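Recall the central idea of this unit: under ordinary conditions, the amino acid sequence of a chain determines the structure it adopts. In this exercise we apply that idea directly, starting from the sequence alone.
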Amino acid sequence: MMTLETMLERAYRLSSYWSYFSEECDRLTTVFSRLKYPQHLINSTVVLFIASKVEDPQPTPAKKENPTVGIVLPFQDQDSADFVRKQLA
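Accordingly, the structure predicted from this sequence is:
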């Protein structure tokens, strides 16, 4: 489940609020479920990742004056992302 762990780490580092990180965890769970990963493996990976970060809660609230900007980052290779999008459709 290295791919899921990598995506979770990426989401964790880019999230400015825990709520955004939680939403991304839910989205990743949905994506990997659609890709036919075993549900118990997805859930255990997400739970273990979150548990490992509880002692180091990096996502902190941004300043109130700055509006939050959401960014969708593509996969490393756009051709792969396009292929996955077609498969999920």
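The chain has one domain: 2-88.
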